[in-house]
Amino acid sequence: MITALPSVDDFQAIAEAQLPLIDVRAPVEFQRGSIPNATNLVLMNDDERHQVGLCYKQSGQQQAIVLGHQLVQGAVREQRTADWLDFVKQHPSAMLYCFRGGLRSRTSQQWLSEAGVTIPRIAGGYKAFRQYLIDTLNQTAQELAQGVLQSWVIAGRTGSGKTALLAQLAAGVDLEAMAQHRGSSFGGRAWPQPSQIDFENQLAYRLIALNRNVGRQRIFEDEGRNIGSVHLSAELFSAIKAGHRVMLEVPFDSRCQHILQEYVIEGQQEFGGLAPWITHMQSRFVRISKRLGGVGYAKVCQAFEQACHQQQLNHQLEAHLGWIVYLLRDYYDPMYDYQLQRYPQPIMIQGSPEELMAFFNQLKD
C-alpha cells in the first residue's frame, strides 16, 4: 500500500534553486522534453511502459497496475531503486516527478521510502511544471511588449563577436547557446539540437533566474525567429525585436579572425578532425549555393578546397581566410545591409565591445 509522502508545487522555487530532479518517466517521454536539471532514471523502460499502456486500454487500470508490478520486480526493482538512491546520495536536495505526478512518482517515492530515503515529488508532475514554464515565456513576452521589462538587441555583422559580448552581460539571454546552434547557415554543431520543448524550458529557466537576480533589462543577440531547428514564439520574438537596438562595430580583419577561430579551429575540434568537418562545411556551402550564384559558389568552393589542401600539407590555417573573406564581403555583409534597410530601427548606440559593455553597465532600471 502506498503511504502519504511529501509533494511540492512551488515550481518557481524549484527553478530558482536549480534543484536536481529525477525524471522517472520512460526514455521516449524524456527525449520529447524534460525539466532542466533532470536526470532520467526510469520506473519503467519504453517496452514496459508500452505493455502497461496496452493492458490499460484492453483491461483497465487495475490490471495495468498488476502488470506493471510484475514487469518491475525482483532484481529489476532493486536496480532501479539503487539508481535512485545513488542519485539522492549525490544530490540530497533532489525531487522526483513522472508525467502527471500520479502513480509512477508515488510508487518511486514509496520504494525509496522503504529503502530509508524520503524525497518530495512534484505535484502535477511534468505536465504541470511544463505549463508553468510556458506561462513564464508568455508572461515575459507580455512584459516586454508592455515595457515592464526592457528588451535590448545587440546587432552587428557576422563575426563581430556578439555572442562573446552577450556572455559578459548579467542580463544577457544567449538563445544560440540554448539552441545549440550558432544561428547562421554554418552554425550547426557536431551534436544534435535540443527538442523544441527543451529549448523553451531552458529559456524559461533563464528568464526565471533573471527575474530573481537582475533588474528589468533583458539583452538579446539580433537573431531570426528560427535558430536552426528550434524557434521562438511569434509573440516573444516580436517583443524582443521591438526593443532598443545597439550596434557592435568591429574591424573587418578582426571579424575574419573571429570566424577562423570559431568556425575553423573550434569547428574542427567539435567534429573530431579535418575530414568530418570538411563534409559538414561542404553541405553548408550547398545549402547557400543558390544565393551565392553559380560563379560565387564555384569560387568559394575552390578557395575552401585550396585552404583544406594547404592545411593537410603544412598544418597552417591562414589559407582559410580566403573563403572567409569572400563569404563575409560578398554574402553576409550584403545580406545584413539588406536586412537593415528592410527593417530600419533607430540605433541607440554603436561602438566597440568595450564601449557597449560600458553602456550596458551604466543602465539604470
TrEMBL record:
Active site: C98
Organism for this UniProt entry: Thiomicrospira cyclica (strain DSM 14477 / JCM 11371 / ALM1)
Keyword Transferase tagged: yes
Rhodanese domain residues: 15-138
Annotated protein name in UniProt: tRNA 2-selenouridine synthase
Protein's job: Involved in the post-transcriptional modification of the uridine at the wobble position (U34) of tRNA(Lys), tRNA(Glu) and tRNA(Gln). Catalyzes the conversion of 2-thiouridine (S2U-RNA) to 2-selenouridine (Se2U-RNA). Acts in a two-step process involving geranylation of 2-thiouridine (S2U) to S-geranyl-2-thiouridine (geS2U) and subsequent selenation of the latter derivative to 2-selenouridine (Se2U) in the tRNA chain.
Listed Pfam families: AAA_SelU (PF26341), Rhodanese (PF00581)
InterPro entries: AAA_SelU, Rhodanese-like_dom, Rhodanese-like_dom_sf, SelU
EC number: 2.9.1.3
NCBIfam families reported for this sequence: PRK11784.1-2 (NF008750), PRK11784.1-3 (NF008751), tRNA_sel_U_synt (TIGR03167)
Assembly, per entry: Monomer.
Biological processes per GO annotation: tRNA wobble uridine modification
Keywords, ordered alphabetically: Selenium, Transferase
Coiled coil: none
Single GO molecular function: transferase activity, transferring alkyl or aryl (other than methyl) groups
Gene behind this protein: selU
